[in-house]
Design a protein that fits this description.
The chain has 262 residues and is an alpha+beta fold. It is built from two helices and 20 strands. The radius of gyration is 27 Å and the shape is elongated.
Length: 262
């Protein structure tokens, strides 16, 4: 009975982590550019009592194994990078990526982070920054005498200058993509970091080299579906209850054995 208890305990631990992951998805349902994640489960090693193909005492061959598993474990967190719906804001510094790609963000340590959050702001010196004050890469600086900001589908940044009737190009926004985006490391602040599993970033202008285009005045919503997460939560809750029932049943069976009289 001890084996059944420990096996069921692995299921309870896994479902607890599953609930934690679902809670994180639901907590970020309104987070701009958030990508939902799911847990991947894997069965644990098996104790083999008899292997298929071995011979019995009367010379027959055993057709199947006789083995008992030791439960399940969580082996990975898979992030789903499907696009979220676009929300109109009409703010000229709000950008949404329609398709594949990440904004490149300069981190405080000089490294580069990657984000789907296009809710950019203008700093005191005119530079486009994130809500945390991290600079957009390549650097885009809006002139002090600019009266209008226009960012094209291809990332070209133009402004109207006081006293001029001709738009002036001041920069070019580039996006990055990865051969294995789920291999990126999430660090919070709507940012990801490159890892050996993600591969090196491939950078280009929006709309080229497999990258999506930019939509000015819009933001990408989270791709979390509340209905799906609620269903997943019910399934995880029932799985947790069933595993706890296995422990209770194993304890009852142990009690019966302990109460046997000679």
């Amino acid at each position: 009975m001890i084996k059944a208890m420990s096996t069921a305990a692995t299921g309870m631990v896994g479902q607890q982590m599953n609930i934690d992951n679902i809670a994180n998805n639901l907590a970020n349902v309104n987070t701009t550019g958030y990508k939902k994640s799911r847990l991947d489960f894997q069965d644990i090693l098996y104790q083999n009592y008899r292997r298929a193909g071995t011979s019995t005492a009367i010379g027959h061959e055993v057709p199947v194994n006789l083995d008992i598993g030791y439960g399940a474990r969580v082996v990975a967190t898979s992030r789903e990078f499907s696009g979220g719906s676009l929300r109109l804001t009409q703010q000229p510094t709000d950008l949404a990526i329609s398709g594949t790609g990440f904004f490149q963000i300069q981190m405080p340590d000089g490294g580069t982070g990657y984000s789907r959050d296009g809710a950019f702001k203008i700093s005191g010196d005119g530079r486009m920054v994130t809500a945390d004050g991290f600079f957009l890469v390549p650097d885009i600086t809006i002139p002090q005498d600019a009266t209008d900001l226009a960012i094209g589908l291809d990332g070209q940044v133009n402004v109207m200058i006081v006293g001029s009737d001709t738009p002036q190009q001041i920069g070019q926004i580039e996006l990055a993509r990865f051969i294995n985006a789920p291999g990126l490391s999430a660090i919070g602040h709507n940012l990801f970091l490159e890892t050996p599993a993600s591969g090196a970033p491939i950078t280009a202008n929006p709309g080229s080299d497999g990258l999506g285009i930019l939509d000015q005045g819009q933001l990408e919503a989270s791709n979390v579906s509340v209905v799906d997460e609620m269903v997943n939560m019910i399934i995880a809750q029932r799985a947790y209850e069933i595993n706890s029932k296995v422990i209770q049943t194993s304890d009852d069976m142990s009690q019966v054995i302990n109460n046997l009289k000679r």
